[in-house]
Amino acid sequence: MKPFHARPKRNLLRSGIAAANHSFSSSKALVPAAVLAGLLAGSPQVLAEGLVLEEITVTAQKREASLQDTPVSVQALNSLALQQLGVESFEDYALLMPSLSYSSAGPGTSQLYMRGAADGGDGNASGSHPSVAVYLDEQPVTAIGRNLDIHVYDIERVEALAGPQSTLFGASAQSGTLRIITNKPQMDSFEAGFDVGMSTIKGGDNSHIGEGFINQPLGDNAAIRLVAWNKKDGGYIDNIAGSRTSALDYADYAGSQIEEDNSRFVAEDFNELENKGFRAAVKVNINEQWSGTLSYLQQNQDTKGVWFHDQENPNGEIGDLEVQRFGPDDSEDKFKQYGLTIEGDLGFASLVYAGSFMNRDVNENVDYSDYSESNNTWISYYSCDYSSYNAPSTSPCTSNSIFYNSDNSYKRDTHEIRLQSQSDGKLQYVAGYYYEDSSHDYRQEWVQPGMAKGADYEVFGQADLWYLTDQKRTDQQQAFFGEISYDLTDTLTATLGGRYFENEGTLKGVSGYGTTNAKLIYAEANIDSKVTDSGSIFKANVNYSFGDNNMVYLTWSEGYRPGGINRASNTIIPATYDSDFLTNFEFGWKTQWLDNRLRWNGALYHMTWEDMQLTKYDSSYGIPLGVTVNVSEAVIDGIETDLTFVISEGWTISTGVAYNIGETAEDLVVGNNFAPKGTALPSVPELKFNINSRYNFTVADMPAYGQLVYAYVGESYDDIFNYTTTDQTTDRRDTQADYDNLNLSVGIDSEKWGLDLFINNLTDERAEITRGAQGGSSWDSTITANRPRTMGVKYRLRF
Question: Which CATH fold would you assign to the domain 27-798?
């Protein structure tokens, strides 16, 4: 079969990072950055042949093309770069992609943002879709508040496409798209390998990992690729001993208290992770024109404990990397994905069908006790308040602890068929049809094991169940999409793209707590509703090539998220919310200089975010549930740029910067929450950057290397609302402090085997990835942190 290329590719770049943009955002970073810039040599993300950077291949336009021929802002980590950087998880590569930011409470719970487009929502499963689409090969695996944390091994490439990508990648590709592309079976040769490693965490436990792959040709027209891994990450958060006293509200117990401790849950290094999985793919050339690839992937990720600490807790007992938890904290996240891709050569064009089917189940237990004791607002709601239940005084409350169990079942079927030109002429195109059917069933049970019950208190079929959410959400979409490019001259090309979409969403189920009537539930939400919408979005681009391997381009593009249904409504919160749209104006450049030794790429952009969706729980809304509202318009201005220079043979330096200013464009008022015009958007830093270096040399006739990777993430806010309507002078938001990260590694890097000695987070920096405070309240003082200094060794062998 012919390869599906847009046109003959120029011999440009192929580095490990297509655009490794990170940035400084305070004077704290300037000193180490200046020092590193002077000392570092050789980029860990760049392949070079002599003094020439190799070519980068990307598929940002649904076809293989050189990065320098693609008028899109793309950052790409290829397979070799992922290996050299020691990338194993989402958190690893997210640090190395400048336009990508996230908030998180631990593995598999991330919410992604690109180019500063963050609304400060809480990731409620009944709320708005993410603004960044996540793809695993050809299938979107985007999930609200639950980024699929795929283990990174034998991965062909991770691509971050910054800016609206909805014309080709659909709903949720509003501000960007993250793509994880697995290695496919190769028919030309046998290859296999394995990697093993172990590490130890400062003040924490040990970790180990084992990974392996086999690629086996099956005759001349077929091949199979098998991949497996087993990873165990040791903990570093301590659940320390503590006790607390809670008051009772019931009249018979007025003035009495409950005293309890967490002795059952005390443990050192209790945040453990185990990730194991298997991947298989078979590719068959049916004939000279047609081929098919059948794939299967499964992963189980289990965690215990939490990934945040609570050193700012007002009781003063809790220190660095410590918490006090009074209930269970664990999760099991497992998924299976089946895929079928059929490719056909029609001569004038290629025809591609891609179908994927995914099932994902997530079950977790989360201690909720802090929520019930730390803010007077919730005392009467969670402190064994018997007044609503007529519980007899002979049934005393024995504990104020509360936890919830969340049982989630996700299903997603997707089908795409597209026709792509493959000639070398002036006209190039891609046109296709996309269909998706997805569902999310979730049952969340809030349990108070020590709360007294009346004799007939069995409303939910479980004696100690306090509150229940049992709902099902479905989302369907179909779309026709396409892009057409035409070479107006030898150097000037124009592109037009569009997508017509139809979406349908349903939400049904109940959320509420029980009464003494065993046949009823007091429903704060009891819903069975449907919403539909349709529309079109467009893209226009003009790019101009000058000299060898140089391009500038102008892009106007749109991205969107679908509307949806609220579980309840009132005069503040409508029954449904509308789609929101992001419009992007962008000037970009892709350039190479000094005989392909220097690459400088970048983009300047201005984006307008209309009818911005915000999902949040706040009692001032008058609805005791997380709900979504179209709140405001926002504007975002920014720059992404990266620079890579081959200083000498084996010595390269790479650096990049992402800078965003995102603000509300008008006053924002919801309930008693207020954000004036010009309020900075939350959750993302204004500045993010890294400097990357790899120096290759020879020791005893063996190829060796030394590598330093420095990354910096600037400060950000934890909320979009900074005032209440009654107090517009006291800023109630918390600032998530800036942080940096320095990784050092040395080793042997031969073609057949390698040995890496590494120290990650060399300076033992404490990151503030996400602060737990919600809407300015003080009940949650936790901060999600990064892993402390980690030292380890890894060995790999290739056959």
Answer: Maltoporin; Chain A (2.40.170)
